[in-house]
Design brief:
Elements lengths: L1 H6 L2 E2 L1 H4 L6 E10 H11 L3 E4 L7 E9 L4 H7 L5 E9 L5 E8 L4 E8 L12 H10 L8 E15 L4 E13 L5 E3 L3 E8 L6 H8 L9 H9 L6 H14 L7
Parallel strand pairs: 1-3
Antiparallel strand pairs: 2-7, 2-11, 3-8, 4-5, 4-8, 5-6, 6-7, 8-9, 9-10, 9-11
Amino acid sequence: MEAILESMSGISLEEMDAIKLMNRVDTKYLTTKAVLASVIDRASQLYRVLETGGERICGYDTMYYDTGGYQMYYDHHNRRLTRQKIRTRRYLSTGGTFLEVKRKNNHGRTKKKRIEIPDAEFMSFSADDAASRFIESKSAFAPAALFPSTATGFRRITLVNNARTERLTVDMDLRFRNLRTGVSAELGEAVIIELKQDGYCRSDIKGILLDLRVKPLRISKYCVGTVLTEPSVRRSRFITKIRMIEKLTNTKLLKR
């Protein structure tokens, strides 16, 4: 797969500016690294690969914040259509660190707002007045009510179609650590693919994934990571998806 990525046409961060898709429709898929190699091979002439810092597979660290009672987790678990997630994200290839608010509305669209913050505030931004004002203006939560919850690390491939109308992110080597319980977990060979578009429209990658029997699946890295690392949360909605990951990777993730 690495050789195929190196053979593809690249795209820079500057060129990506026109297709940030901060207000978008997301479609997620679950597969394995073995199948991913075939996906990348078939997409190699139709998509360009993001290159940052000379790398085409880039590392990301993310810290998800939540209330003491995991309100954002339960909003998702309880199928609330309008919900938010708040996180800090560190881009290891570029060195940038951002505070982000993701909002999903009842029409299935995702809007993301973010500001850059000092890297020292990755684990806590509450002392930063500008960051606190950002949270107050862009989210439904008070900064004082938020606490570090689930840390998530992964490696990502980002593809952009030649028409520059969509982006595809491929997250692998997913690992989680709960800051409250100290419990860690990994997803092994599992890969989460996310197609990001302005709306529901034709996409070459949808045909490639369908041909390889990779079907859409609604899945949240934060919720999966929380289920695997926080024994006290209710998890009934996510159990089926955890079992799907276990079956796909032949790895036991959760005690029965």
